[in-house]
Amino acid sequence: MKRKIVSVLVCAAMVATMAVGCGSSSTDTSSDAAATTEDAAAEEDAAATEDAAATDDAAAADGDVITVGFAQVGHESDWRTASTQSCQDVFSAENGYDLQFVDCDNDSAVQLEAVRGFIEQQVDYIIIDPIVTTGWDMVLTECEDAGIPVIVIDRTIEDSDKYVAWVGTDSKAEGLAAGEWLKAYAEAKDISELNILVIEGTTGASAQIGRTEGFNEIAEREGWNIIDSQTGDFTQEGGQTVMESYCKSYEGQFNVVVCQNDNEAFGAMDAMTAAGVSYGVDGDVILISFDGCRAALEYAMDGQINAVIECNPMAAPIVEEVIQALEAGEEPVAEQYVPGSYFTGDDSVTSIEVNGEAKEMTIVTPELLETRPF
Ligand code: AHR
Description:
This protein has 374 residues and is of the alpha/beta class.
C-alpha cells in the first residue's frame, strides 16, 4: 500500500514539473498566445493541485501507512494483556501503522485462519505469536508465496523456517533459572528434601516446553522429587483447578509449587488458602512463578510468592526495528532476545548462575513497582 502512494506522489510531482516548464516557455510569445498559454498553464496548475489534493486524501485515508496483521495467542493472562498493549502502542496510527489485530482465544485453528485472513487482506507484514510450536509450515509457505514477511514473537515455531525474524525470551533459560534459584534457596534455608508440584502452561506451547525442560534438567541433576506436573493452560482458573486437585491428592506431601505463569500462581494461591496450606516466605510451601507482572511482584514483595522469573512481554519495539529494517531494504536481525530479570522479596539468595552466567536476584521494592511497565 505504501508503495502505491509513493508512485502517485512521483506522478503528481511530474505533472507539477511539466506545468512549471510550460508556463516559463510562454513568456516570449504574443499577448494572445501568452493569454492562451497562461490559461493552459492555469488549467494544468489546477489539475496538478487537484492531483496533489487527491494524493493527500489517499495518504490520509490509507496511504502512507504500513499495515501489520497480528495473530495474538489470546487474552489468557496479565502477561498477554501487556504483550497486546505493547503492540498496540508501537503499531499505532500515530506511528504510521494500521494494526489488524486478531485475538485467537488460544485456538490454533482460529490462529491459522487469522493468518490466512491477513494474506487475503494483503497486509504488508504479519506478526504471529504461535500458540503451539507445530502445524505452521503450510500457512507460512502461503505467506511466503504472497510475498508477505512474517515475524514470529514470544513463542517459537519448530516445524518451519519460513519467517524473517523471531523476537522473544529464552523459555528454557527461564526454567533453568527457577531450578537454580530453588537449589540456592533450599541450601540457604537448610531444606534437604524437595517434593515438587508443577502447574504447566498450555501443552505444546514453547513457553511450556522450554520452562519444563529447563526446570526438569535441574531437578534431575539434584535428585528432586517431582510428584506431579499438569497443565493449567496459563490461566488463573486453570491454576486454581489443578491446585485444588493437588491439595486433595497430595495433602501434606509437597513443599514446592512451581507455576509456569503468574496467573496460574494466583489461582494456586487461592486454592492453597482455601485448603489451609500456607505458602511463601513464612509458609510451608515454596511458591515460584514466571512472567513478572506487577501483581506477582507485589506478592513477591509481601513474601507470598518466593521467586518470580521474568518473561518480558515488551517485544513490539524490537519488532518495529525489524520492520523498519525491511522497509529500508536491509537484512533484519534474525533472532533477538528480550532481556528479563529474576525477582524475590528477600535477600536469602542474591544471585544465581544460569547457563554459566551469574545473574542477580532483584529484590522488589515499592520504588521498583512504581516504574514497572506491566
Ligand atoms: O508465551 C508466554 C506465556 O504465555 C506467558 O508466560 C504467559 O503468561 C502467557 O500466557
